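Dear Dr. H.,

I hope your travels went smoothly. While you were away I took the liberty of generating a structure for the chain from your last submission, since the lab meeting agenda had it listed for discussion. I wanted you to have the full record in hand beforehand rather than looking at slides cold. The sequence, exactly as received, is reproduced here:
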Amino acid sequence: MASHRRSPSSSSSGLSRGAKVTVLSAAAATAAAALGAAPASADPATPADTTRARVDRLYEEAERATEGFNQADERAGALRRQVSRIQDSAARGQERINRMRGALGAVAGAQYRSGGMDPALALLLSADPDSYLDKAAALDRIGDRQATALAELRHAQRDLAQQRAEAGRMLAELERSRAAVARHKRTVESKLAEARALLNSLDAEEREALDRASRSGRDDLPPGGAEAVSGRAAAAVAAARSALGKPYVWGANGPSGFDCSGLMQWSYAQAGVGLPRTSQAQRDAGRHVPLSEARPGDLVTYRDDASHVGMYVGNGQVIHAPYPGAPVRHDPVGMMPVSAVTRV
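The corresponding predicted structure, in token form, is as follows:
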């Protein structure tokens, strides 16, 4: 989401509503972030630094909450599918038990109706003893099958009880996941609202200066001119390029809007490759390579917690969904501290 690099003054707090930034001070802060040290002529803590640090922090916190939302939502979706399958299986199991009960009841009724006479007397009074003996043998076989059917019925009832218990446990977990989704959603919306209020306190020129600062960074690594290592990586790059200009929408994975990990998942899906939903999981979705060896199609995750991700597309650039209000775009690969480069 946020493509900001934290400045040395990111721990500063407090900003008056009327605090203003200038293009010159934003450029000075940009140079300080890119070089890792403030120039000798730069103020140690300018209004630009303070504004940028606060916006950085809010977007970073919102992005972490967005990835938490994505993870909880993905888990809730998986649980819903599992509960649905278990409930369908339980319904089929109940129908089978009902049929078994009906069959056993019919046999039991027949036995009850014919069971009032002693077998020796029935044989003595029978007009056709051979036929009676044949029927008796058949009844014995039916009795054996009935015992087997009864055992199967009991086993089916145990299975059904286990399925219902498992469905109950999963429904409880589903409710916890839904609560987590709602909690992360509230956090994201709160952080984004605070960031919007801060940005709205600036005029257009000041916001443009702030955005330029956010897009700065080391763009000399890795070397340009490299090609994708596979056809699927090339297809994913083409898909990411087709999304340029699409809006950032937190929690979205296309095709009309994206958050950072949603863009990566969608782009690789167009190449026939399934990626996990969150940036943290995407960091481990392939083989890690050094940044200096990055090739188009590699995933670049940022920050120690891998809470942001982009796709390397060559010439020291990534395509990513930065943050609300900024469309899918190119930015320098070194715009933030890199956590890992992953070759899918």
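Two observations you may find useful: The helical segments are 23-35, 47-114, 119-125, 129-200, 204-214, 231-242, 260-270, 279-283. The chain has eight helices and six strands.

With kind regards,
E. W.
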